[in-house]
Write a structure and sequence with these properties.
The chain is α+β, with helices and mostly antiparallel strands. It has helices at about 1-30, 110-115, 120-140, 140-145, 155-165, 185-200, 225-300, 300-315, 330-335, 340-345, 350-370; strands at about 30, 35-40, 45-50, 55, 65-70, 75, 85-90, 95-105, 210-225. The strands form three sheets. Strands 6, 7, 8 and 9 form a four-stranded antiparallel beta sheet that branches. The chain has a three-stranded antiparallel beta sheet with strand order 3-2-5, covered by helices on one side. The chain has a two-stranded antiparallel sheet with strand order 1-4. Helix 3 packs across helix 6 (about 185-200) and helix 8 (about 300-315) packs parallel to helix 11.
Length: about 375
């Protein structure tokens, strides 16, 4: 009987312990992954830190687990709020600079005691990086910030302009840059060293540190302020407009030269063509005249007779009156026929020709008599 009561009490105790373990287990156990690190706080004070992955115990309701990233943290300063604006260089230029930084937590206990949270740490990193970048940039010239070596500059714009120029026109000389003593890489290294001193607390003479480490820092973008950019663009626009006007004037000049030369060539060709046409026309007319004379020589008598008949037809109308002498070829032609006229010459000419001339003279006399 007594043994039964003992077993019964033991069962109740075990059940009670199991219930407590179920209820308090999540607050007693915690895990740490390979991408994080853990700091255990007890009443706000750091009592332990865990950096290795695994399962760990803590006192429930008393101790608090604060998880921190173990990976690299990236701060991007390209947002308008984080952009460095109106930063003057040593040679008088005002620029806008976008910087970035990589950092990580190396001492979680010191980190929690000093910065408490990741957003606070990122804010401190941003402040130190922006301050160090401004200090270094203002102490050096713009050429030191954008260049790393003294290699000769290649003016890409002048090279592009040369494409549109003649071969004998000179290429605009590239601007002569100042000698580079440090260069961009060394200036970035100076920014890194200054930020690391600030994060370690060395800038104030202490060694307490903040539990974070700056891994790397860099300059993402450098640009002129909007006013300077607008002036540079306007200057470039004015230069391009002057260059375009020069090309237009040269094109118009060459156009006029080509038109004048073409017009002269056209006039020369037209003159030569007209001269050759006149020569050919005169040659053809001479050939026609020669052939016409040859035909007349071959059929002269018949041709004279036909022409005489045509003259009679045009002269002798219904009301024509003729006054003829007895030796007139026309009278002989009308009375004796063409054989009598052809056999008797008149004034050393052919009879038919004399008849024709007599007909014409008679027609002229008739018109003179009929005139008032």
């Amino acid at each position: 009987m007594r043994a039964a009561r003992v077993w019964f009490a033991t069962g109740w105790v075990l059940a009670l312990l199991l219930l407590v373990a179920v209820l308090l287990g999540p607050s007693m156990l915690y895990t740490v992954s390979e991408r994080e690190q853990v700091v255990v706080l007890q009443f706000g004070k750091v009592v332990a830190s865990r950096r290795q992955p695994g399962l760990y115990f803590k006192v429930p309701l008393v101790q608090e687990v604060r998880r921190l990233p173990r990976t690299l943290q990236f701060w991007d300063g390209s947002s308008p709020a984080d952009l460095l604006t109106d930063v003057p260089t040593a040679d008088g230029f005002k620029i806008e600079v976008s910087v970035w930084a990589l950092w990580r937590i190396v001492d979680p206990e010191q980190f929690v005691q000093t910065l408490r949270s990741v957003p606070n740490a990122e804010l401190r990193v941003k402040d130190f990086v922006r301050s160090a970048a401004r200090n270094v940039i203002t102490a050096h010239e713009l050429g030191e910030l954008v260049r790393s070596t003294d290699r000769p500059l290649v003016d890409a714009f002048a090279r592009d302009v040369q494409i549109g120029l003649d071969a004998d026109e000179p290429v605009p000389a590239p601007p002569r840059a100042a000698a580079v003593r440090l260069g961009r890489a060394k200036l970035v290294e100076k920014i890194r060293e200054e930020v690391q001193r600030g994060l370690r607390g060395g800038s104030r003479g202490g060694e307490q540190g903040r539990g974070i480490e700056l891994v790397d820092v860099g300059i993402a973008r450098i640009d002129f302020v909007p006013d300077v950019r607008e002036q540079a663009f306007n200057k470039q626009i004015a230069f391009m407009e002057s260059l375009a006007a020069r090309y237009v004037n040269e094109g118009e000049l060459r156009k006029r030269e080509i038109l004048n030369r073409t017009q002269a060539d056209v006039q020369k060709i037209e003159g030569e063509g007209a001269r050759e046409a006149a020569i050919l026309r005169g040659r053809v007319d001479a050939e026609v005249t020669t052939k016409y004379a040859e035909a007349i020589r071959q059929v002269g008598e018949f041709y004279n007779f036909v022409r005489t008949l045509e003259a009679y037809e045009s002269v002798l109308g219904g009301r024509t009156r003729l006054i003829l002498t007895t030796d007139s070829p026309l009278l002989r032609l009308l009375t004796a026929g063409p054989e009598a006229v052809a056999s008797s010459p008149a004034d050393g000419e052919g009879g038919q020709a004399a008849v024709g001339r007599a007909v014409l003279e008679g027609a002229a006399e008739e018109r003179g008599a009929a005139a008032p």
